[in-house]
Amino acid sequence: MKGPLFYSKILLFGEYGIIKNSKGLSIPYNFYNGALKTEQNPSNEALASNKGLALFVAYLKEIPAKVVKFNFKKLQQDINAGMYFDSSIPRGYGVGSSGALVAAIYDKYAEDKITILENLTREKLLKLKTIFSEMESFFHGKSSGLDPLNSYLSLPILINSQDNIEATGIPCQNCEGKSAVFLLDSGVTGETAPMVRIFMDKMKQEGFRKMIKTQFIKHTNACVEDFLKGDINSLFHNTKHLSKIVLSHFKPMIPSQFHELWQKGIETNDYYLKLCGSGGGGYILGFTENIDKAKQALSNYKLQVVYNF
User: How many whole angstroms separate alpha carbon 298 and alpha carbon 295?
Assistant: First the structure.
């Protein structure tokens, strides 16, 4: 038995900002995926995943039925039969490993579920986001619900504000294009909850709050608009500003061995780095106007191109 595939995601813009109502843009990343599976001779990894699912089910039973109902009888039977989540999505890397799992469980076991085939009104999208937020909080302590939403719909999602989201189209990839979005492997895993706590503590400082409002959100919103419009010059202008702001004000979220590399990109304009998800490790997101130059400058690191334009 193998269920449908659910893909990883990349939040191109909006990390931390969407907590404070900035715009955001999240895209599916089909390079990694996961599916619910049962097999005769499970590996140790499969057994560990099965145990994790049993704990997750205990948590799901606590979610009020008015939010979401599940067929727990069927779910429990499948877990007892050894079901696990077979996933290539790296954990702690900011590309939505728990989001794909949440989407898979909802898809298979939710009752009265909202399907991807129906007309997805804003109300339905917000309802899905609320359900997924509750479900994914098991993994992170607090979740926006966007990762599972992206994985479930397998469509780019535009976040206009916390209560205004829509499925969107993004400019077609141009495989010959020199400009690119890429992932840089930091070599260490990150955890979401401690990073969000650091952010919330910083938000208690008036200066930090002001910077978020007047600089961080301003450039995040501009990047989203530029990307969707395909305004490349303006996009890189705003991404450079965003990269500077993150280096100055979000240092704890950037592994220390990357501080210098981050600064070098800003100085040379060969590439601009930003957080991928909550940071603290995992992938770092990169933007470049010339992927060949970026590859040369980052030749000592593992670099994965996500999108050419």
Answer: 5
Q: CA angle, 71 as apex, 66 and 75 as ends, to 5°?
A: 130
Report the first-to-last Cα separation within the chain, whole angstroms. Answer: 39
Domain ranges, ordered by start, for the chain: 6-167, 180-308
| Beta bridge partners of residue 272, listed in sequence order | 287
- pLDDT tens-digit map of 123-163: 999 999 999 999 999 997 778 899 999 999 999 999 998 88
Q: Between the CA atoms of 175, 177, 178 and 180, what dihedral angle is there, to the nearest 10 degrees?
A: -60
> Would you state the CATH architecture of domain 180-308?
2-Layer Sandwich (3.30)
- The CATH number given to 6-167 is 3.30.230
Residue 102, both tokens: 């949440």
Phi/psi at 165 (5° precision):
-130, 155
Of the candidates 157, 154, 181, 153, the residue with the CA atom closest to the CA atom of residue 169: 157
At 132, list the tokens: 């997924």
Determine whether 143 is exposed, middle or buried from the number of CB atoms within 10 Å of its CB (0-12, 13-18, 19+).
buried
Sequence-separated (6 or more) residues with CB below 8 Å from residue 55: none
State pTM to two decimals.
Answer: 0.92
